[in-house]
Amino acid sequence: MAAKTLFEIRLSADPVHLKSLRGMVENAAADAGCDAGVATQVVIAVNEACMNVIQHAYDGDPSKEMVVRMLAEGGDLVCRIEDHAPPADLAAIRPRKLDDVRPGGLGTHFMAELMDECHYGHLEGRDGNYLEMRKKIPQ
Amino acid sequence: MPYEVREAEGYRVVMLSDEVDLSRSPEARKTILDALGGPGAVFVDLSTVSYIDSSGVASLVEGFQTAKKSGQRFALVGVSDAALAVLKLARLDQVFEIEATVESAMGGSV
After folding, report:
1. Per residue in B1-13, is it b (16+ CB within 10 Å) or e — as a string?
2. Contact across the interface for A55 and B86, Cβ inside 8 Å
3. Less CB within 10 Å around the terminal CB: N or C of chain A?
4. Residues ≥6 apart with Cβ < 8 Å to A101
5. Which domains can be identified in chain B, with CATH numbers?
6. Cβ(B31)–Cβ(B3) below 8 Å
7. Pairing outcome for strands A4-12 and A129-136
8. Residue A76, beta-bridge partner list
9. What's the pLDDT score for residue B108?
């Protein structure tokens, strides 16, 4: 079955936009057939991914831009976040140990726990990175 | 909009609310740390928090660590289901002191 684009949005890396983005993600997940629980998980994961772009890829610069795309593809919900930052050190992106109680560093753990797959990569032919996350849509 | 802080003898209650995300967590952090700047216990009320992200959780953790250093009691009260789910995801539900209400936290003596 062909992938169905649920939405694609280009937004500035400003935390004030995250609330409306979460609403879009929740609606898209529901439209794709996810129940409320799964939709919430996807909302959390996409929010954390965008936070990482804002804070780490763009160092908090709200003038930068990111692209968020959601698709329903082959029974999966696919969420893809792209930035235009310099290439990230992909090997350094991994969840940290949670027995170390300290602020920060939880986002990658949340994404890994809540989504079925998380793939990080560099964009081809241009500056930027992507994160693609997949979640099986319960039947 | 700043978060409300309720003061009583021996403690302060920081009333977080709605969606504590990256746009609001700096304010949450500042409010919690300011509350810990005075004497007595600090409770963070999460009863009306409908969403909290990792930056919001980080502000709670920083409050926890600051309180530990100063020997102050720091507890979360009225933790909403949404907030508790995120704390469990972070394995922090066993780290924070969590109470149903300020009254129960104070042993019924408020």
Report:
1. eebeeeeeeebbb
2. no
3. C
4. B61, B64, B65, B92, B95
5. 4-103 (3.30.750.24)
6. yes
7. unpaired
8. A73, A136
9. 63
pLDDT along chain A (139 residues), means of 10: 92 98 98 96 98 96 97 96 94 82 88 96 94 95
Give the count of domains, chain A: 1
Cα A115 from Cα A67, distance rounded (Å): 19
- Output the pLDDT for position A1: 65
What is the domain range of residue A23? 4-136
Give CA–CA dist B110/B108, Å, rounded: 6
Q: Mean of the pLDDT values across residues B57-66?
A: 97
Which residues from chain B sit within 8 angstroms of residue A104, using beta carbons? 54, 58
Q: How near does any CA of chain B get to the CA of A125, in Å?
A: 31
Distance CA B32, CA B3 (A): 9
CATH number of the domain to which A88 belongs = 3.30.565.10
Contacts by residues A119-123 (CB-CB < 8 Å, ≥ 24 positions apart): A120/A88, A120/A90, A120/A93, A121/A90, A122/A87, A122/A88, A122/A90, A123/A82
Predicted TM-score (pTM) of this structure: 0.95
Q: Which amino acid is present at A97? A: K
- Reported ipTM: the value is 0.93
Residue B50 phi, psi (nearest 5): -95, -15
Query: Mutate which of A11, A12, A14, A18 to test chain B, going by most B C-beta atoms within 10 A?
Result: A18
